[in-house]
Design a protein that fits this description.
The protein has about 475 residues and is an alpha/beta fold. It folds into three domains: about 110 residues, Aspartate Aminotransferase, domain 1 (Alpha-Beta Complex); about 240 residues, 3-Layer(aba) Sandwich (Aspartate Aminotransferase, domain 2); about 60 residues, Ornithine Decarboxylase, Chain A, domain 4 (Alpha-Beta Complex). About 35% of the residues lie in helices and about 15% in strands. It has 15 helices and 19 strands. Helix 5 crosses helix 10. The longest helix is centred in the middle third of the chain and has 19 residues. It starts with a helix and ends with a strand.
Length: about 475
């Protein structure tokens, strides 16, 4: 009999996994026991009864918590999100764009951004990120490329960028912010992976200090918040009514008090503990990386990307390539999980990505190092070459994404799709970055990458 969810969760618990993946609380029972002081999770699973306040019209405890949140991030106003960053991203897209207008967005944006574009019938103008061919790593966008787009298209009034990337790569957000202001556009930032960047001065600058109009963060990725717990920070007070309108639309009318309570605990952590514990974490990561550099592994982000202008990186992310010992990232992930009870965030053919947080402990890094040394000795073989990143150098939008729903489609073998128009998205997950979106032409370059992922594809049916 196939196991159901509760049985699967119990089995995972019994594995005693070392966590180098989200959520940022790292399954720390000690943290929650100390903070909750006798409260059980079931005690916090409430609804909007007297004394518990209302998320969509807060006047009591939720309002007070959000004010504390706003003070830490120095925003005009900050909000709890219980539908993850997705609800916040959709809200800020709708708050800053009008239907059937243009939006400039980095191509390696999350799928929720693409869904927002479709829902508001927007015409996307894509900003292609730079890619390091040696590692297949997506770097980020440049100020020069952004200005070129804005200078050529006065219809763009909103710029949405992802900062930092899933892998923690950061571009020059302050320079980009000045350019966006120069062209009188809104700047909205998907900072899903950056809720911790204000915790210590050794981390890259937060988008919250960049001059952006709205910033959305996934607190659950790097802070001790439950999954789906996120923040939205508003810096442009003129957008207050609009953003609150769309938060009511895109968030649940029955918000989880468990999630909101964990967000409240995260605020307490940010204010009282984050600076010291983040410094300890950075030092732990540095020690681990220095030890690993003496092996045959390549620590990508602590190597070729360290202070590589105009890109910087988040040192709490660790990106490791085992290609020098003949192992793909996917094989390395498999060995770490099933041979050494270590779970990473995600893998590609070229590398693995590990997310650390201030709730990781020294023993986690020691176990990881010992496991990697053991893998090198037991499974290492001849070096293999890296593969290109699963992102296109350019895209050709033939039909606006929202208009696809009005058309018919046929399912074709991938080899029959050259030159056709995609009806659906292809989104390798994680990290949830679309390889191709509805309405785009399937070029030869796209076809080469698509065939490694899918066998068939829905394409727009040709008119007869």
């Amino acid at each position: 009999m196939k196991s159901r969810l509760v049985e699967s969760l119990r089995k995972i618990k019994d594995e005693n996994l070392v966590s180098f993946h989200m959520p940022g609380h790292k399954n720390s029972k000690k943290f929650f026991t100390e903070k909750l002081k006798g409260l059980d999770l079931i005690d916090m699973d409430l609804t909007e009864i007297p004394g518990a306040d209302h998320l969509h019209d807060p006047t009591g405890s939720i309002m007070n918590s959000q004010k504390k949140l706003s003070e830490f991030y120095d925003s005009y106003k900050s909000y709890f999100l219980v539908n993850g960053s997705t609800g916040g991203i959709l809200s800020m897209i709708f708050a800053t764009t009008k239907r059937n207008t243009k939006i400039l967005v980095n191509r390696n944006a999350h799928q929720s951004v693409i869904n927002g574009i479709i829902l508001n019938a927007l015409d996307p103008v894509y900003l292609m990120p730079e890619i390091d061919e040696g590692s297949g790593m997506i770097l980020g966008v440049t100020a020069e490329a952004l200005e070129e787009k804005l200078s050529k298209d006065s219809q763009i009034k909103t710029v949405l960028l992802t900062y930092p990337s899933y892998e923690g790569i950061c571009f020059d957000i302050q320079k980009i912010s000045k350019i966006v202001r120069k062209y009188n556009c809104y700047l909205i930032i998907d900072e899903a992976h950056g809720s911790h960047l204000l915790c210590h001065e050794e981390l890259p600058i937060s988008a919250c200090k960049s001059g952006a109009d709205i910033v959305v963060q996934s607190a659950h990725k790097n802070l001790p918040a439950f999954t789906q717990g996120a923040f939205l920070h508003l810096y442009n007070k003129d957008l207050e009514a609009s953003i609150e309108k769309y938060l009511r639309i895109f968030q649940s009318s029955s918000p989880s008090y468990l999630i909101m309570a964990s967000l409240d605990l995260s605020i307490d952590f940010l204010i009282k503990e984050s600076h010291l514990k983040t410094k300890v974490l950075i030092d732990e990561v540095k020690d681990f990386v220095n030890k690993l550099k003496k092996t045959s592994y390549e620590v990508i982000n602590w190597g070729i990307y360290y202070n590589r202008s105009p890109f910087t990186f988040d040192p709490t992310k660790i990106i490791i390539s085992a290609l020098p010992i003949g192992l793909s990232g996917k094989r390395l992930e498999e060995l770490l999980r099933y041979k050494y009870s270590i779970q990473i965030e995600y893998s590609t053919d070229n590398f693995i990505v590990l997310i650390t947080s201030a709730l990781n402990v020294s023993n986690d890094f020691e176990k990881l190092y010992c496991a990697l040394k053991s893998i090198e000795e037991k499974y290492g073989k001849k070096k293999i070459s890296s593969k290109k990143a699963l992102i296109l150098d350019d895209v050709i939008v033939k039909i606006k994404p929202d208009q696809i729903e009005n058309l018919n489609y046929v399912v074709k073998n991938i080899y029959e799709c050259l030159g056709k128009i995609a009806y659906e998205s292809v989104i390798p997950y994680p990290p949830g970055i679309p390889l191709i979106n509805p309405g785009e032409e399937i070029t030869y370059e796209a076809l080469k990458k698509l065939k490694t992922i899918v066998n068939e594809l829905k394409i727009v049916e040709e008119k007869r």
